[in-house]
Write a structure and sequence with these properties.
With 266 residues, the chain is α/β, with parallel strands linked by helices. It has two domains: 169 residues, 3-Layer(aba) Sandwich (Rossmann fold), CATH 3.40.50; 75 residues. The chain contains eight helices and twelve strands. The strands form two sheets. An eight-stranded mixed β-sheet has the order 5-4-3-2-1-10-11-12, sandwiched between helices. A four-stranded antiparallel β-sheet has the order 6-7-9-8, with helices on one face. Helix 2 runs parallel beside helix 8 and helix 6 runs parallel beside helix 7. The chain starts with 15 loop residues before the first helix and ends with a helix. The relative contact order is 0.19.
């Protein structure tokens, strides 16, 4: 446990909290799985770390921080796991948004993208992986968390080859994530949606994105000229983030200190 006298500081950004205190306007965007909530083999049991929702609620009430959750999960799953605490939630890597006031917006894949997603579902069925698959608005993911390592590696290698991993087309790309493989529609990702969110913010706004996965690298790259990307997890994994936190417990302490700074400024 940390306190306001010895707050957890993102590795690589020693002056982080001093900058936050000086900022009159702030944006804090966070991934969900592996950031606010530890991974679980049963995906719908991946609840946020105790205390996370309370700090997010408290931070949002101060009015000086715009809070956003950006996840690969559908918005409905985030609401089910976390509850509706009045935040903007962006799901499906940016293809759907539920604003803080409850409005839901969708962007639909193209006809060709829909056709390729349908083909991906057929591929999954042929491989007998339906129980591991998740169909989203603009992607198809196959989860291997909990699968024996040798079989998981075989599944991921097969899907990466089948779906052209590493060789994106104009319509689709195949990317590995922490615990699986996903075929995704090109055009929107966590980086593009983050830039859209920041477009109307003054250049002096203190902007932070916290995430743990390969899919968060798009956001880390996008925010480099506007603020800080903070990678959650092992320090030996290459990243475009400028700072690091070791785990979800550290993210909780990070939110605790952000909450403290925000309320002291009131």
């Amino acid at each position: 446990m940390t306190d306001s006298n010895h707050p957890v500081t993102p590795e690589g950004i020693p002056g982080f909290w001093a900058e936050l205190r000086r900022a009159a306007k702030r944006v804090l965007a966070l991934d969900y799985d592996g950031t606010l909530a530890p991974f679980r083999e049963e995906r719908m049991k991946a609840f946020p770390v105790e205390g996370v929702a309370d700090h997010l609620t408290s931070i949002s009430k101060t009015g000086d921080t715009t809070l956003v959750i950006i996840s690969g999960r559908p918005v409905g799953e985030i609401l089910e796991l976390m509850g509706d605490i009045g935040l903007t939630i962006i799901g499906s890597h940016g293809w759907e948004m539920r604003t803080a006031d409850g409005n839901h917006r969708l962007k639909l894949p193209s006809l060709e993208q829909k056709r390729m997603l349908q083909q991906a579902e057929e591929d999954v069925a042929k491989l007998g992986l339906e129980d591991h698959a998740e169909k989203k608005l603009a992607s198809v993911a196959v989860h291997t968390r909990g699968v024996p390592r040798e079989r998981a590696e075989k599944i991921e290698t097969e899907l990466m080859g089948l779906w052209g991993g590493g060789s994106p087309t104009r319509e689709m790309e195949c990317r590995q994530f922490n615990g699986g493989v996903e075929l995704r529609s090109i055009g929107i990702d966590k980086g593009t949606i983050l830039l859209q969110l920041l477009a109307d913010e003054p250049r002096t706004t203190f902007c932070v994105y916290v995430g743990d996965d390969e899919t968060d690298e798009d956001a880390f790259a996008a925010i480099r000229d506007r603020g800080y990307g903070i990678k959650v997890g092992r320090s030996n994994v290459p990243t475009r983030a400028r700072g690091r936190l070791p785990d979800c417990a550290a993210v909780l302490e990070f939110l605790r200190e952000w909450d403290h700074v925000s309320n002291v400024n009131q």
